[in-house]
Amino acid sequence: MPAPRPSRPIEDHCEQLPESCRQRWAELLAERRTARREDDREEAFSARWGESHLRGSPIGGPFAYLALIPVISGVERRTYRRQQRRFRNKQGDAPMPASTGAPPPYTRFSRVPLAQALPLSGERTLFPWPGGKTRLAKHLLPLINERPHTCYVEAFAGSAAMLFEREPAKVEVLNDMHGELVRLYRVVANHLDEFVRHFRWSLTSREMYRWAQLQHVETLTDIQRAARFYYLQKLSFGGKVEGQTLGVGPTSTKRINLLRLEQDLSDAHLRLHGVVIEQLTWQRCIEKYDRPETLFLLDPPYWETTGYGAEFGMDQYEQLAEVMAQLKGRAILTINDHAAMRALFDRFNRVSVPIRYTVGGGAGVARRTEMTQITPLQAGGVNVVAFLEMLAWSEGTCTSPATKNRGYDVIVTGADRVPEVFTDYSVHPFSRGRKSKRINSKGLTSNASGRYQFMLKDYAHYRALLKLSDFGPLSQDLWAIQLIRECRALPLIQAGKVEEAIGRVRNIWASLPGAGYGQPEHKLSDLLAVYRKAGGTVAP
């Protein structure tokens, strides 16, 4: 058995390096000197030096190059300081006192205990992905958190942006039909050590990128395939799965960052702890996990868009709409604002969010709108949603020629008969000092606004009662349902007794038959026709 190699001072190792690497070594040593005592630094670097030699990754071509720049981030994380550690959470760095009893269950690659496993500390997702929801997190997280659930399921996982953003649920499921994607999640969750090893000598290189694209994946192990997929996704323009091109340019930040890579992967490894990873069709996934306590996040490929690497035709959207209407649990669907999609999912409540798409477009791409929709269970059933549609039709808001958001943006028409809409959903349009509009020649004024024509005098009360964060579509729907509930009409609507329910709420909406406010009233038969068209059922 050969004698162990004697440890040598770090400076001797530096002398053995090429000139191009010495400056980097000096920087690393300076950083190390501020964090470790001299003897600990010698031991850690000497151990690391034993692994530092000219070699390529077992993957071959794309990950092999002749350079000797060791990565010390792993050494930093693997050598724990028992007296005090720092961990990252949503509020940034915070001190963590030394354990007084048994040490917490740290993994090999992270300072963060499993109990503190939170969203990624660096980038919000492991890799870019078409239609990723990172930029929509501020809109989606409140919707997710406000709905009680113990099981959280992403049926179209993609980059799982919302899973990494949100707090862990009791049961969490990631599902996707993309085999390479599912393989990557499983490898990061179960084989992090070996996975990270494949990137110790990786470069952001056009030649390596091309080599990775040309590899025959059938000849690789699961870990090698996961490493190849991760490398391509990190460097591809727009995170596209098909038609990939290298997304690196003069202003691009896309690269394999060796000093951050292990930390980001370690954080993802911790966050995926306990997450069930499935590779099922979306239909089978929903069928398997649909329970009253389940919340589904449904993020299918956008209609008439490309880059996902999978086909999703109109028949699938139609099937998805039918499945959503019959869910036992709850669901949030995100889809692009397209006329065909609006018509197909019109039975559900909808929130419109402006967002700029950049994949395949660049700076000149126009702003489009992404809709956030929830199932009828949020409202209390399909009949309740249909009744809300009937009210909007009766008030003339959803049919207004000026509306750009199904009546949620409509202001009462004045005496000049010119339709008007608003664009700021943060508060009631008249709550900032605007005077009420004169609506007839007799001098009658009104400030009714929104899909259900709410008056300013009631806004403060219901905003506090329902804890409404804004005057957006969801807030307006909740307000309308509360008014219906106060009139004791909600059980009648759920039972299909629509005529009786209309009689209960007609003192609120003047356009309903028998309201008696002197305004035009609709016929009951017309209202029932709109109600049925929206999916509502009428009791015999």
From TrEMBL:
EC number: 2.1.1.72
The entry's keywords: Methyltransferase, S-adenosyl-L-methionine, Transferase
Enzyme class: transferase
Statement: the UniProt record of this protein carries the keyword Transferase: yes
UniProt keyword Methyltransferase, yes or no: yes
Top-rank taxon: Eukaryota
InterPro entries (alphabetical): Ade_MeTrfase_dom_2, Lysozyme-like_dom_sf, MeTrfase_D12, SAM-dependent_MTases_sf
Signal peptide: none
Catalytic activity of the protein: a 2'-deoxyadenosine in DNA + S-adenosyl-L-methionine = an N(6)-methyl-2'-deoxyadenosine in DNA + S-adenosyl-L-homocysteine + H(+)
A GO biological process held by the record: DNA restriction-modification system
GO molecular function, one term: S-adenosyl-L-methionine binding
Region (Disordered), start-end ranges: 84-106
PANTHER family linked to this entry: DNA ADENINE METHYLASE, SITE-SPECIFIC DNA-METHYLTRANSFERASE (ADENINE-SPECIFIC)
Family: Belongs to the N(4)/N(6)-methyltransferase family.
Protein name according to UniProt: site-specific DNA-methyltransferase (adenine-specific)
Organism listed in the record: Knufia peltigerae
